[in-house]
Amino acid sequence: MKYIMALDQGTTSSRCILFDRNGTPVSTAQKEFTQYYPQPGWVEHDAMEIWATQIGVAKEAMLKIGAESSDIAAIGITNQRETTVIWDKATGKPVANAIVWQCRRTADMCAGLVKRGLTDFIRERTGLLIDPYFSATKVSYILHSDTEIMERAKRGELLFGTVETWLIWNLTGGKVHVTDYSNASRTMMFNIHTLKWDNDILELLDIPPQILPEVVNSSGVMGYTDPSLLGGEIPVGSAAGDQQAALFGQCCFEKGCVKNTYGTGAFLLMNTGSKPIRSESGLLTTVAWGIDGKVTYALEGSVFVAGAVIQWLRDELCLVRTASETEEIAESVEDTNGVYIVPAFVGLGAPYWKPDARGIITGLTRGANRAHIVRAALEAIAYQSADVMKAMEKDAGCEIRFVKTDGGASANNFLMRFQADIMNKSVHRPACLETTALGAAYMAGLAVNFWGGTDELAKLNKVAAEFEPSMSDEVRNRLLNGWAEAVKRAVV
Ligand code: ADP
What we know:
By secondary structure, the chain is α+β, with helices and mostly antiparallel strands. It is 36% helix and 24% strand. It has 17 helices and 23 strands. It has helices spanning 47-64, 107-115, 119-126, 135-144, 147-154, 163-171, 181-184, 199-204, 227-230, 242-249, 307-315, 326-331, 370-396, 413-423, 435-447, 454-460, 473-491, and strands at 3-9, 13-19, 25-32, 44-45, 72-79, 85-88, 98-99, 158-161, 178-180, 190-191, 196-197, 214-216, 219-224, 235-241, 258-262, 266-273, 284-291, 294-303, 340-342, 360-362, 402-406, 426-430, 463-467. The strands form 7 sheets. The chain has a 7-stranded mixed sheet, with helices on both faces. A 6-stranded mixed sheet has the order 3-2-1-5-14-13, sandwiched between helices. It has a two-stranded antiparallel sheet with strand order 4-7. A hairpin with a 4-residue loop joins strand 10 (190-191) and strand 11. The longest helix has 27 residues, at 370-396. The model has no long low-confidence stretch (mean pLDDT 95). Residues 263-264, 307-308, 310-311, 323-324, 326-327, 407-409, 411-412 line the site of adenosine-5'-diphosphate. Adenosine-5'-diphosphate (ADP) binds at residues 263-264, 307-308, 310-311, 323-324, 326-327, 407-409, 411-412.
C-alpha cells in the first residue's frame, strides 16, 4: 500500500490529495461547487453536489497517477464544519439543501435562546456560545420547516449529519452513520464532558434523537468503501473538522501547542490536553480529536477578516494587483507611519465579540501613502491573531512558546516576521502548507498502521522556516498601544 487518500471537503470546493509515506502530496484534484444565496445572509449547498464533486475528485486524483484502490491504505476525511444535512435513509436523498455554517437564518432562534438566559447552560454543556454558526438551530430549522419532515424524523426515516457524516454514509453505500468527536463538538448538541448527545438540548430544540449519528474516534476504521465507487474496499480511517485536522497536521500533539491558519479568516487552536478549559475571554472550548477512546480538547478563537483584508486592498481599493506583492510593498517602508487598519468588516470576533463594530483606518496624515496602508493591512492580521493568542494564554494559564502557521497568507514573510515581533514569540512555518488534508491523512494512516505513531509523524513534519522576534520591547509596546486605541474607535 503506497498512499493515504485525504478528502478535504471545504466550503467552496471538494479536494482530494494522495499522500505518500513521507507525508508528501503526490496527486491532487479539486472541484468547486455551487453556492446558493436564497436570501441575504442565507447560504446553502446541494449535498448531492458535494458528494458528486468529492467522489469525482477522488477518482481524478487516483487516475492522475494511475493508482488503484489496492494502492490506498486508508481514506481520511476533513470537512467544512457545522454545515447541516438531513436525508432520507431509504433513498439517500436530502430533504432540503444543506444549511452552511455561514448561514444566519437562525439568528432569531438563537436570540430567543439567549433571551431565555440559556447562554451559560449551553456553554457549560457544549463549550460554545449560542450562535447560528453551529448546527443545532439549523437542524431544528429544517425539521420544523415542514410537519411531514418532522413526522418522518420521528418515525426514524431520516438521518442528520454534518458533512463528514454525509460523506462516510455515501462512501460506505449507506451502511455507516457516524460522526467523530471533533465534528460532534461543533453541533451545539453534544455534551463535551460526558461525550454524549445532550438530551436536554435536544428536547429544548425539539430534535428527535433517532436522527443523530453514532459518535466515534476521529482516528479509527469506521467502515469500508462500497467497491462500486473506487474499485475496491478501502477503509475509512479518519474524520475531523477542518481546523482540528490542521492542528493534527501541524503535529500539535502536546498540551499548550498552538497553530494559526491564515486564510480568509484566521483560526487559532490551542491543544489543552485531556481537560476542557472554560474560556473567560470569548474563546470556544472544543474537542480537538478522539483517539483510542481518549479525547483531547482545544481552545479556539477566530478572526473573521485576515487574508480577506488583502483581497479588499486588491479588489475594492485596487491598491495591489496580487496578494503576494503586498510582502515587497510592506517591506519598502520602515513602518506604517502611524496608520492602523482595523478590518472589522463583519464585526470583530474573539476576543472582542463586537458584531456591530465596523472597519476603520486611523492615523492618516498627508504623508501616508499606499505602502503604509498595505503594511497596516498586513499588520492588522498579526495584531488580531496576537489578541487571540493573549486570550488563550490567559485562559490556559500558560505561556505560548511558539506558533505553527499555515494557510494562504502564511506564505507572506513580512507577515510572519511581524507576527513574531508583535507577539515576542517564534513563528514556525512547515514545508507542507496543506496541513488540513495532511492532518486527516495522518489520522487515517495511524488507524491502519501506515504510520507507527505520533513520534513518527512529528519526524515527517519538517519546519521549513522559523521567524524569531527581534523587535525591542519599547517599540512593541508603542505599537500595541496604538492598535488598542484603534480597536476602541472601531468598536464605538
Ligand atoms: P481559504 O482557505 O480561506 O480560502 P487560503 O488559505 O486559500 O484561504 O488563503 C487565501 C487568503 O490568503 C486570501 O484571503 C488571500 O488574500 C490571502 N493571501 C494569499 N497569499 C497571500 C500573501 N502572499 N500575502 C498575504 N495574503 C495572502
